[in-house]
Amino acid sequence: MKKLLVLGLAMILFIACQNQPQNYFNASPELETFKAGVAAYEAQDWDTWKSHYADTAKIFHNSNKGNSPDETMAGMKDMLSTLSSYAFSKENAVSEMVVDKNNKTWVNYWNTWRGKLKANGKEISIPVHITSEFVDGKIVQEYAYYNLSEYVDAMQDLQAYNNLPADEKAITDAVNKVVDGWNTHNIANLKALSVPNLTRASNGVVDIKSIDEYESFMSVFVTAFPDFKVHVSTVDIADNKVYINWTVTGTHNGDFMGNAATGKKIKVPGFSVWTLNNEGQFVSEEAFFDNQAIYSQLGISPPKV
């Protein structure tokens, strides 16, 4: 009898659980509406974007003040006017719909937004979280959280660049082209901006004596690290010298100094001094960095000298 009683209680609990209303969804009309709004934002189809919001909707983007769809749209247009391209990641998007204890319907969205400044091609990456309440198929309130510091810093750097004298602007442009050449794995920019007998010293030792040798040097790194990137933090110019603080990153997916791919990542800071001649061409680079850090991060031994 006791076993029957326990079995009966278990069945009652099971049936009760089965009768609970569903409160989590990974597919719904609201989710499709939200995604359509994201697509409209990316296409700057503002009429379609606005159509997903109720006329009285309040939108809170990094603020305690709720704006109307028109006010929010104006702010977004202002920011987007500074960009040559922008979009949300197609790989990292996560979305869900939940019905809370008060029977309110919410769509949550997490993704990474990426944009490129129109003025200098600076790339910006910002994680974003948006949560939107739906009533009768329309968004009635929305909260969005994202850190704009990277965008603000980029705009401040652009303002500082615009205030530079013409000769320093030209040097800054040249540095940006060299960095872009590294990041696109193309020596053409540096070849066009340097003398044929360009030299490079690593930690005080001259190991490159021509642009062709520099190209071979670049090839070693971009082959070993197909996603190799140079990230510049500061650039200072004094007469014919350019002082650059940088960090390089990459994933070891190719042969590096005779070492097979490990799949490990590197992140190594460094400092370079570039010298220009009177014609504005690069004649030398002196680079300083912890060479051992590369091998330590990869878990391999440096080549024997």
Automatic annotation (TrEMBL):
<dbReference type="GO" id="GO:0030638">
    <property type="term" value="P:polyketide metabolic process"/>
</dbReference>
<feature type="signal peptide">
    <location>
        <begin position="1"/>
        <end position="21"/>
    </location>
</feature>
<dbReference type="InterPro" id="IPR037401">
    <property type="entry name" value="SnoaL-like"/>
</dbReference>
<keyword id="KW-0732">Signal</keyword>
<feature type="domain" description="SnoaL-like">
    <location>
        <begin position="38"/>
        <end position="141"/>
    </location>
</feature>
<dbReference type="Pfam" id="PF07366">
    <property type="entry name" value="SnoaL"/>
</dbReference>
<protein>
    <recommendedName>
        <fullName>SnoaL-like domain-containing protein</fullName>
    </recommendedName>
</protein>
<dbReference type="InterPro" id="IPR009959">
    <property type="entry name" value="Cyclase_SnoaL-like"/>
</dbReference>
<dbReference type="Pfam" id="PF12680">
    <property type="entry name" value="SnoaL_2"/>
</dbReference>
<dbReference type="InterPro" id="IPR032710">
    <property type="entry name" value="NTF2-like_dom_sf"/>
</dbReference>
